[in-house]
Q: What sequence folds into this?
């Protein structure tokens, strides 16, 4: 088969992504570990793209991590999700936008379950009414936040101040994309490009001038494994999975790992530090790691937001080598400051991984 | 012996998770858990489709059903559209409901998850609550995280975020009325009872094992569950 043909496999899987007026729900993990990312998503949506995104402060966790660690029954999770749908319905919105991939996968699973088993949907409605007095309509459109960035990738690229291009050589920077397992592995038609050739981050990367690098373990899980990360004694599973990926991508010399799931960038960022401490091994050039970004961090960076306003200083793997390659203007002395230039100290240096 | 197979069939995830497995082993080839653990999703599918109650009981009391990471990679590539990961979820649910989860070392860890994720959901409205993640429990977080924790309010302000604020925003305080609705949902749907059952079964097991059991996170039983790691879980390196 011709390689050009292979590259078009993703086109079989297209999904409708709403154009405006989104009811936004946050991710527990993204807020905790990359707090600047979600803020950037909303800033880009509202200020750069002029879209209406509504957030109800009373929305909660979808219980997804509880569900996938098997301590929350399906009935309970479905009813908590139904409550989020009720908040959307009450606010007059029809398009649901989720920041979390575990949540996004769960919405797909629940809606499929209700489609095949209307009696389960009816039971959920009864539970929600009894527990909260609320009623809901099923969203007309459910998108993950990365789907929306994908939809507007060309608008973002048009406004971009920086591109994924090596400023010195003029060559595209090399990006490996990592898609959260629950984005499309369970329901391929719910993701742009399906499960085998997801296009959601490829599209964004290419629009911004970068080059996607294929590698053998591209579709391997990052290693969260829910209970395997949460219970400390099981955590060897998590770091082993991540190591499989790093070892596999290393020969292709990527400049950036781009992710759409809230957990994956966290694990792939922190495990690079831990592998350094444990085995003295690093995966970037000259003792650095490979920076791991979320889609909204990348979009914000290209749009010209200050790296320290985006929150790139909350990453353990230092982003500066990539910033320099892209020619991004940044003030290294302001990286670890608080608001209005307040001195708040600096983190200690890792033993092995080079951090600026 | 109760009819576990019948109970399993009542779970929609079992119904949706398996039709006829042809034992091709594609799921095992793709499974990250099978890379590291003594785990073979193909055998799970093979076992449950026999409908043999004794064999299903053996699964319910085993470590085997707790190795899957629920990444659901098995779903994508199964030529018969089966999902061993969903079958695992149904088996785990049944092991929890019947209390059989305390029979295995990995199953007993459910108490740790209940006392973290489970309680954070009800108390804060978040699955993961960053203040509860300590460096002792998470040394892999690294020095940057430690620095963030020591200066959290300042750092978040720099990012334009008001920590634990009322109203919308990153790391907002979830209103008490919303939390009460979530708790009410847990009571109405059996979620609360399910969590309480983890405590009840764990207390019973602690007694059987002669270990102290109370609500403290460092009681003897919790300590045992958190620290024990048998040598039988992982694969022997093949040469």
A:
């Amino acid at each position: 088969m011709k390689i050009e043909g292979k590259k078009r496999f993703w086109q079989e899987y297209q999904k409708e992504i709403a154009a405006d007026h989104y009811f936004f729900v946050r991710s527990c993990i993204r807020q905790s570990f990359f707090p600047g990312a979600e803020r950037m998503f909303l800033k880009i949506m509202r200020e750069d793209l002029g879209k209406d995104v509504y957030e109800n402060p009373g929305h909660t966790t979808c219980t997804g991590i509880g569900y996938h660690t098997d301590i929350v029954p399906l009935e309970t999770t479905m009813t908590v999700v139904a409550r989020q749908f009720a908040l959307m319905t009450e606010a007059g919105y029809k398009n649901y936008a989720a920041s979390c991939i575990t949540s996004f996968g769960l919405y797909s699973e629940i809606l499929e379950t209700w489609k095949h088993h209307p009696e389960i949907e009816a039971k959920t409605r009864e539970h929600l009414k009894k527990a909260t007095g609320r009623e809901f309509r099923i969203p007309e459109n459910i998108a993950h936040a990365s789907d929306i960035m994908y939809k507007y990738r060309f608008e973002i690229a048009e406004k971009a101040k920086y591109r994924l291009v090596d400023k010195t050589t003029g060559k595209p920077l090399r990006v490996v994309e990592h898609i959260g397992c629950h984005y499309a592995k369970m329901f391929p038609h719910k993701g742009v490009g399906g499960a085998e050739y997801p296009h959601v981050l490829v599209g964004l990367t290419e629009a911004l001038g970068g080059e996607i690098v294929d590698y053998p373990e591209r579709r391997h899980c990052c290693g969260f494994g829910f209970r395997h990360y949460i219970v400390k004694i099981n955590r060897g599973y998590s770091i082993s999975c991540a190591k499989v990926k790093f070892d596999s991508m290393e020969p292709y010399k990527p400049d950036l790992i781009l992710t759409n799931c809230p957990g994956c960038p966290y694990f792939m960022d922190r495990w690079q530090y831990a592998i350094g401490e444990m085995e003295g091994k690093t995966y970037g050039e000259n003792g650095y790691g490979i920076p791991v970004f979320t889609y909204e961090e990348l979009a914000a960076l290209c749009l010209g937001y200050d790296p320290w306003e985006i929150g790139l200083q909350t990453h353990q793997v230092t982003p500066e080598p990539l910033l320099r390659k892209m020619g991004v203007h940044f003030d290294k002395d302001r990286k670890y400051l608080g608001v209005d230039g307040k001195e708040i100290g600096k983190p200690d240096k890792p033993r092995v991984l080079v951090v600026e | 012996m109760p009819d576990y197979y019948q109970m399993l069939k009542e779970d929609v995830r079992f119904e949706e998770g398996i039709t006829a497995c042809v034992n091709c082993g594609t799921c095992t080839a793709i499974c990250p858990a099978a890379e590291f653990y003594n785990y073979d999703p193909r055998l799970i599918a093979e076992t449950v489709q026999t409908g043999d109650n004794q064999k299903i009981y053996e699964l319910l009391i085993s470590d085997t059903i707790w190795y899957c990471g629920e990444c659901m990679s098995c779903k994508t590539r199964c030529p018969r559209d089966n999902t061993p990961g969903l079958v695992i979820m149904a088996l785990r649910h049944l092991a929890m409901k019947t209390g059989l989860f305390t029979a295995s070392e990995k199953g007993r860890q459910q108490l740790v998850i209940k006392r973290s994720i489970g309680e954070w959901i009800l108390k804060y409205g978040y699955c993961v609550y960053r203040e509860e993640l300590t460096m002792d429990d998470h040394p892999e977080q690294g020095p940057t995280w430690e620095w963030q924790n020591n200066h959290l309010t300042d750092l978040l302000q720099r990012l334009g975020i008001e920590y634990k604020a009322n109203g919308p925003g990153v790391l907002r305080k979830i209103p008490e009325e919303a939390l009460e609705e979530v708790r009410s949902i847990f009571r109405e749907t059996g979620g609360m009872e399910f969590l309480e059952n983890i405590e009840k079964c764990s207390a019973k097991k602690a007694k059987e094992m002669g270990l102290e059991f109370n609500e403290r996170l460092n009681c003897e039983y919790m300590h045992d569950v958190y620290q024990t790691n048998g040598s039988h879980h992982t694969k022997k390196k093949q040469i």
In short: The beta strands of chain A are 22-25, 53-54, 95-98, 141-144, 174-178, 211-212, 256-259, 292-294. Residues 246 and 326 of chain A are 23 Å apart (CA to CA).
